[in-house]
User: Fold these one by one.
Assistant:
Number 1:
Amino acid sequence: MIRLLMIVTGAGRLTLKDGSIRRTGCWAEEFVVPHELFIEAGFEVKLATPGGVEPPIDPESMTPERVTGGMPIIEHFKAYLSSLEDLKFPYALEELSEQQIDAYDGIFLPGGHGPMEDLAHSKPLGAILNRMQGANKLIGAVCHGPAGFLPATREDGTWTFQGYKLTAFTNQEEGEVGLADKVPFLLETRLRELGANFDSGPPWKPHVIVDRNMTTGQNPTSSYGVAHEAIEWMSAQVAPR
């Protein structure tokens, strides 16, 4: 059985440039859609958050204005999230041993603005990513999830994923939600500065990039596509147990 570790934000608040606080968390679609697909594919999926806290769901991600399909899909998201007992008791990512990490075939990071508050600065997450990258395991993320890639650095200080073609929530999309001049940093800009070969598609349309062992999606509508590509990659690469 293929085993996947989902690293989810534990931050329900984002500190903006002016010091004010914006309520946030994990974006529901970016967690539920991939998780469902991974389970349907027969994967064993475990969750981890900073501190082992229950991951908060961004309330905006459960509103008809933000969810294609409206209330029926929102009700499905709610029911699915309520059904996951391990969502209430995730692993603390800081406490995962190397032996535990080695037991997984890949890692996947959903988005929401929460990762900009915690995962983007998590040295333990950086170490986990480095270990998985060194073993050529799947590295996957969607929307703001790639913020979790930022702390992954080599011993010489260079970024672990330098030169990788990838995508994430774009500066244009950040601007269209009215936060480009408010968030602590622009994810697209930061990824480019670190050496990513950043590739963007039209705003709010599905856009998925696969480069070697990495699969990334640009925005919430990319959740299905990026999970599908992750499943395809792991199914082809991981030897049956």
Number 2:
Amino acid sequence: MKKWWIVVCVMLIAIGCTRSGEPRELVIMTHDSFDISSDVVEAFESENNVKVTFLKAGDAGEVLNRAILTRNNPLADVLYGVDNTFLSRALENDLFEAYEPPALSDIPTALILDETHHMLPVDWGDVCLNYDVQWFEDENLAPPGTLEDLAAPAYEGLTVVENPATSSPGLAFLLATVDYFGEQGYGEYWRALRENDVRVENGWTEAYYGQFTAASDGDRPIVVSYATSPAAEVYYSEGQYEVPPTASVTAPGTCFRQVEFVGILKGTRQLRLARAFVDWMLSQTFQEDIPLHMWVYPANQQAELPQVLTDFGAQATDPATLPPDEIAANREAWIEGWTEIVLR
């Protein structure tokens, strides 16, 4: 009888249940911007008899650092939110189990940056310059159309950016300038921006809601944000705006395309449930819930987009991209070079 009960217990643990039938816990480490509908999470929990706990651990870089430091005693079963600027570092540290979910066939090959499938693409978005439409109309000044415009005398003192050492969009924009001007030319470009009185904030919130004229009492009508930000302005205005008060600059080379990934952490005791969670993240139910919560595009091509994003969400025509291994090899040097030029 005791042997029979031991076998049953082992089977229950394998399918994610405790001896008493209570749901097991699945811990998901994410960046602070992670957001999804509670009813979508509850449906997954009910279907899999599991309690999902989300452990928010800072921005993408902080999340990865925490996972590396605790690799021998993982704090979570699954990690979401590492993007292509940190992908190579994540893979080099051998943190994840390889897994090929069924939905992988519905994801464009351009988003599958890890062919070993240790990290799987969940969503993507373009970091772009945004501008205050009304401000430029009032000033009878053409809005910026290229990166070079920001360094022109007419745009002196108009731009706010984020520090690439402390901000994900700030780093993405720095990488766009590296790709556009080259490793030898990006420094000269940033010198020109500094001379043109570019303002630097530590993070997106401080820049967008602290300095951007369309969203604050600030005096900067150009900000580094996202191509989806104009659509978000309409959505959150609760009917105040029928068209966005802001617009994105999406000309070739002006935006950087970010891809965010999910991976199953090695050491998880909930491998079956972790795989189920990854399957769920790539399912249409989850993917169609992403846009209005995190304002990025779903990786699954079968997911339908909300109307506000279809109407007002811009996409870069030819975004800047850099191979993850090149970013990993040069990221710190590029940031240090930027810091020397812009802040010191």
